[in-house]
Amino acid sequence: MNLILLAPEDIRHDRLASVRDPRRLRHLREVHRARVGDVLTLGVQDGGIGRGELTLLSDDEARFALETLDTPPPPALPVHLVLALPRPRMLARSLEHVTAMGVKRITLLHTRRVEKSYWQSPELEPAKIHEHLVLGLEQARDTALPEVDVAKGFRPFVEERLPQLLEGRRGLVAHPGMPSPCPTGLSEPCVLLIGPEGGFIPYEVERLLEAGCEGIHLGPRILRVETAVVALLARLF
Amino acid sequence: MNLILLAPEDIRHDRLASVRDPRRLRHLREVHRARVGDVLTLGVQDGGIGRGELTLLSDDEARFALETLDTPPPPALPVHLVLALPRPRMLARSLEHVTAMGVKRITLLHTRRVEKSYWQSPELEPAKIHEHLVLGLEQARDTALPEVDVAKGFRPFVEERLPQLLEGRRGLVAHPGMPSPCPTGLSEPCVLLIGPEGGFIPYEVERLLEAGCEGIHLGPRILRVETAVVALLARLF
């Protein structure tokens, strides 16, 4: 928690914030070892960043006197990430990694090799997803909450949704064996598509390429999704 | 397990391998859904890669008839990674990530902000470290086992060990706020040093720079060690 992210309901009035959830209270006590009088970095969800003085720390509340929170969050990555739904624990970690790296649009996609049971995981509940996004933002000192949606059918996604996403954006399908190495130093908007463990099936790769995406690879090593997604983002931008 | 990594003791004779540990047997059954007659990819630790036919699968043994295992493993990264010892679970995942990416030399370093208790973790036992290295190799279809050592004193490391490591290698200290962005597309040998959660302390950064390392950064976002290490390797090479 390199930044204490304030939800709108944490702000009592212009100059006072009150944090009451056990996770943040525990973190303030155990990791920050915070004491009344400490000045910490805070940010408002989808707003600015600044400092605040801890004026009260009790079992169920931390209260901050806020200075001006007007520093903008770090720049976002110009990418819409389309991720074949990983298994639940890998989803959780991947959401934290990519949020910390600055991804702001994430679509979780069903593909042939996604296990159907993953769609029933509690990790997909909005509150759980929100929790991982917040952890990623707190880590990276960011305030801009990513948007996450789901596409539970591959064909409707490719036929109806992808053409819109590709308007004004470069489409990149990361898949082992594709002809081009992952490009570097991009600044234009992209859609980055990453398959599940075991990869996209050949039919899916064909449809994505037909839709106008370029196939890219990360070399001969096959990486786990959570490793590959970080490596791709780090190399692309 | 994109490759079944055979330890020397798994090889009965020239053309026969026998796998007996529960982890790999379970994986063969549950993930590969392997049946007698299936041909799978195998590799010999620190040796070549090839195919083998499953000739027996019982509760306590999988037996393979080996073809020639003469495909070399994928290229290694020319980097010696010096990682401030992360907390145990992050160590485990980081070892898997960096092994999958092709790192072959890893030194785990004590620095001021490494919690002393981490050095007592069971994750540091050679057998546990070996397990994570093997998982990384199996993921990336590699056979060359990384070497991992520890440096439990920062000063002896900087004064005695680092000068040797930097002979013929470029030293890079990844630390927020350093003047240069992380370089890309390197092919020369490097030593990459990464601090703990909370970073190196200023004294440590100074000593590393004095020793001849360059300070590099990944931008304004503060990443967790396991995210940063993947992002740095992906960008450097």
Strand content of chain A: 25-35%
- How many DSSP E strands of chain A? 13
The greatest interface here is: A-B, 28 and 28 residues
**What kind of oligomer do you see?**
homodimer
Shape of chain A: elongated
- The overall pLDDT of chain A, averaged over residues, is 96
Text of the CATH class of the largest domain in chain A: Alpha Beta
Spatial strand arrangement across the major sheet of chain A: 9-8-7-12-10-13-11
CATH superfamily of the largest domain in chain A: SPOUT methyltransferase, trefoil knot domain
Major pleated sheet of chain A: 7 strands, parallel
Number of helices of chain A: 6
Query: What count of domains describes the coordinates of chain A?
Result: 2
CATH architecture annotation name of the largest domain in chain A: 3-Layer(aba) Sandwich
Percent helix of chain A: 25-40%
- Report how far the terminal alpha carbons of chain A are from each other: 24 Å
As for the CATH topology of the largest domain in chain A, it is Alpha/beta knot
Rg of chain A, Cα atoms, Å: 20 Å
SS-based class of chain A: alpha/beta
Account of the 3D structure:
- Two copies of one chain form a homodimer.
- With 237 residues, the first copy, chain A, is of the alpha/beta class.
- Chain A folds into two domains: 4-66, Hypothetical PUA domain-like, domain 1 (Ribosomal Protein L25, Chain P); 79-236, 3-Layer(aba) Sandwich (Alpha/beta knot).
- Helices cover 30% and strands 27% of the residues of chain A.
- The first copy, chain A, has six helices and 13 strands.
- In chain A, strands 9-8-7-12-10-13-11 form a seven-stranded parallel sheet, with helices on both faces. In chain A, strands 1-4-5-6-3-2 form a six-stranded mixed sheet.
- In chain A, a hairpin with a 4-residue loop joins strand 4 (39-44) and strand 5 (49-58).
- In chain A, helix 2 (88-101) packs parallel to helix 3 and helix 2 packs parallel to helix 6 (225-236).
